[in-house]
Amino acid sequence: MSAGTPAGLLPGDPPGGRRAAFVWGIGVAVYFVAVIFRTSLGVAGLDAADRFAINASALSTFSILQLLVYAGMQIPVGLMVDRLGTKKVLLLGILLFTAGQLAFAFAPSYGTAVAARALLGCGDAMTFISVLRLGSRWFPARRGPLIAQVAALFGVGGNLVSTLVVSRTLHGVGWTATFAGSAVAGVLVLVLALAFLKDHPEGYEPAPARKERSGYVRAQIAAAWREPGTRLGMWVHFSGQFPAMVFLLLWGMPFLIEAQGMDRSGAGDLLTVVVVSNMVVGLVYGQVIARHHEARLPLAVGTVLATALLWAAVLAVPGRSPLWLLVTLCAVLGSCGPASMIGFDFARPANPPARQGTASGIVNMGGFTASMVTLLAVGVLLDATGDDYRIAFASVFVLQALGLTQMLRLRRRVARIERERLVASRVETVHVPVP
C-alpha cells in the first residue's frame, strides 16, 4: 500500500463518508421512484384488465414488454454508464420513466398503455446499474456487497409504497389521478439529481477516456462475458429474482384473490410480507457476505431451493392453502431479491473498473429475462387451462432448474479463478515499493 493511503482502503479507493452517502442517496432516490412506477401495475392488474377489457395473456403483455425493454437495455445502459458517467444516464432515465408513467395515466387504449409501459421500462433500465456504479465511485470496494444490498433495499421500499399507497389511492381517487399524481415524484428526483448528483468525489476522477477503436462495443461485451464470474453472476440473478418479481409485478394479487379466495386487503397484506421480508433479508445477506465472502453461493442456492420447496407445498394443497403456508411462502419469496443481488458480487471482482457497467448489465439481464419468460408462461397457461393457477405457476420450477444447473456448473471454475487472483494481488501488494 502506498504512503498516504488510509488503513483499510485499497489504493485508489474513494473514502466514503457523509458526502458520499448524500450523493449516493440521490441516486438511490431515483431508483426508489423508478421501482414505484415499475411495480404500480402489480397492484392494478385487475383494474387494468377491466379498464382495457383484456384477458390474462394481454394483461401479461404490459409487464412482459416493460421487462423486455428493461432486459434489452441492460448492456447498452452498461456501456453508456461506462462511457458517459452516472449523472447523464440517470437524468435521461428519469425523463423517460416519468413520461411513461404520465402517459400510462391518460392512455385511452390498450395499445397506447402498452407503449407507455415500454417507455417506462426504458427509463427504469437506466437506474439500478447507474446506482451500482455511483456506489463504486463514492465508497471503498470492501463496502460493495453492503452498498448493493442497501440500494436494493430502497428499491424494495418503492415496492412497499406501491403495495400500501398506490393500491389504496387507486381505489380512492381513480386510475388517472393515481398514476398522474405519482409522476410528480419523478419531477422531484429530476430536480434533486440536477442540483446535487456528481459522478465521483474530487480527486478520484477516472482516467481520461481514450478514443475508442473500431469494434469497442463488441470487445467490451465479449470481454465481460468471457469472465466466468460474470456468467455465474447472471445465472444467480436469473435464478434468484424472478419468482418474487413475477409475484409482485403482476400475478401475486390475482393468484391470492382468484385462486386463494382472499379479499384485496388481505392479498395486499401478503404482498407487504414479501416486501418487508425482502428488506430484512437484504440487510442480513449484505452483512453476511461482507464478512464471509465464501457464503455467496450457498446463500443463493439455498434461497432458490427454499423458494421451490414452498411453491411446491402451496401448489400441492388441493383447493385453498392455509394462511400460515401462504405467509411462509411470501416470507421466503422476500429472500429472492437479496439472493439475486449476490450475482453482482461475482461479477464485480471479475471485471476491471472500466468494464463494471457492462458486466453489471449482463448480470441484471438474467433475472429480468427469467421474469419476462415466466410472466408470459403464466398468462398463456392461465388462458389455456381456464385459470388453473396450479398448472400456470408450475412453470416456475422449469426456470429454477435451468438456473441451478448453470450455477453449479460454473461454481468451481469461478472459485479457482478468484483464488488465483487473490494470491496474485497479495504478491503484488508485498512487492509494491513505498516512496
What does this protein look like?
By secondary structure, the chain is mainly α. The chain has 17 helices and no strands. It has one domain: MFS general substrate transporter like domains (Growth Hormone, Chain: A). It is 79% helix and 0% strand. 50% of the residues are buried.
Low-confidence stretches: 1-11, 429-435
Q: Which architecture would the CATH scheme give at its second level?
A: Up-down Bundle
CATH class: Mainly Alpha
Q: What is the percentage of strand-forming residues?
A: under 5%
Helix and strand pattern: HHHHHHHHHHHHHHHHH
Q: Which geometry do the CA atoms define?
A: globular
The profile of the biggest β sheet is: none
Helix and strand composition category: mainly alpha
Mean pLDDT: 86
What do we call the CATH topology?
Growth Hormone, Chain: A
Share of helix, binned: over 70%
Short description:
With 435 residues, the protein is mostly helical. The chain has a single domain (18-200, 220-425), classed as Up-down Bundle (Growth Hormone, Chain: A), CATH 1.20.1250. Helix content is 79%, strand content 0%.
Describe the secondary structure blueprint for this structure.
Elements lengths: L17 H22 L5 H8 L3 H29 L1 H21 L3 H15 L3 H11 L5 H30 L1 H22 L19 H11 L1 H32 L4 H28 L4 H21 L6 H11 L2 H12 L8 H30 L3 H5 L1 H36 L5
Helix pairs in contact: 1-4, 1-5, 1-6, 1-7, 1-8, 3-4, 3-5, 3-15, 4-5, 4-6, 4-8, 6-7, 6-15, 7-8, 7-11, 7-14, 10-11, 10-12, 10-14, 10-15, 10-17, 11-13, 11-14, 12-13, 12-14, 12-17, 14-15
